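mind reviewing this fold:
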Amino acid sequence: MQAEAQNTIHTIANQFDTAQIISIRAHGNGNVNDTYIAVASDRTRYILQRVNTAIFTSPEIVMSNMQTSTKHLSQCIQDRRLTWKVQRVIPSKTKKSYYIHTDGTFWRMISFIEEAHSVDILDSHDKALELGKAVGLFHSLMAEMPHGTLSYALEGFHIVPQYLKVYDKILAQHASLPSNEETNYALHFIQKHREDAVRLEIAKAQGILPLRIIHGDLKINNIMFSKVGNRAISIIDLDTVQPGLIHYDIGDCMRSSCNRHGEETQAWEEVQFDTERLRYIWRGYLSHAHALMDEQEHAYVYDAIFAITFEIGLRFFTDYLAGNVYFKVHYPENNLYRALVQFRLAQSIDTQKETISQILKEEKKKYLQGATAQS
């Protein structure tokens, strides 16, 4: 980090209500916001972020939702005496939940969860079970908050028909595309499965799937594990907490956790969906949140896993065609390969539809039998 930029960030960090910030370093590998760890003179660590206002065009709504949801979660956890951590929004010295710098950039500070870590790839069934429990607990706690309490931080988020319209528009602007294996695979996959990926939105429009409060970005590395015991103890990155279908959260958790190669691999042709990881994640989820969904909603879980995987791939590929304007990239073809990983994963999900559907049914049956035996 250049000296001038370092001084600017130090100035920004010290606009928040903490002890004097004495050191700052870049942190994480997020695709949207710029994230830093800021260390205060009392050795307390904080997360400092520049919110990407090109994406979050109403960042004040993001912060209002974050304050409301973290307050709700903290109260639920306190009432239930749960060993769970919730990040706090650190107010600015003017008592706002954010700080706008003189250059117009939008900043926030959040408490840092100590003695915890995130992972990009699961390495055990125990972690898969814990991950599922974390998502189920989050949904069960947020279900106590009426979805009208929060505003939409991102309009159109996870609405696949809208992403397809954007994709079609950008694709039409390209008179020709390179004819190679990677691009042809992506184009063919989107065309073949675009109707399969909109089933959740059709069900929502028909009143089959109701709106609830969702996280919106429940990929694997937004779930924190304790360094001792590897227990899931927190869910972070609450930018996109808003009304939506919990199916998107479930699907996002599954697609990011059941890929042994991770999301950044270039070996996209080797990517497969791991159904045994799915089994343990779903088992953990049901232990906290089975009652949230009725029979019809349970019937759409497979569709959720496929749809969100297709959606993420579509968004990566669209951004690649648009010139990498949304997601951060490390090299020009980064979003292309990210898209290929998701499409290959979605293909694996599609070919294992019967197996996945059977596992979902088996685990649900086991849960109900266990619940009946205990009653």
Notes: The longest helix spans residues 59-80. The radius of gyration is 21 Å. The chain has a mean pLDDT of 93. The longest strand covers residues 34-40.
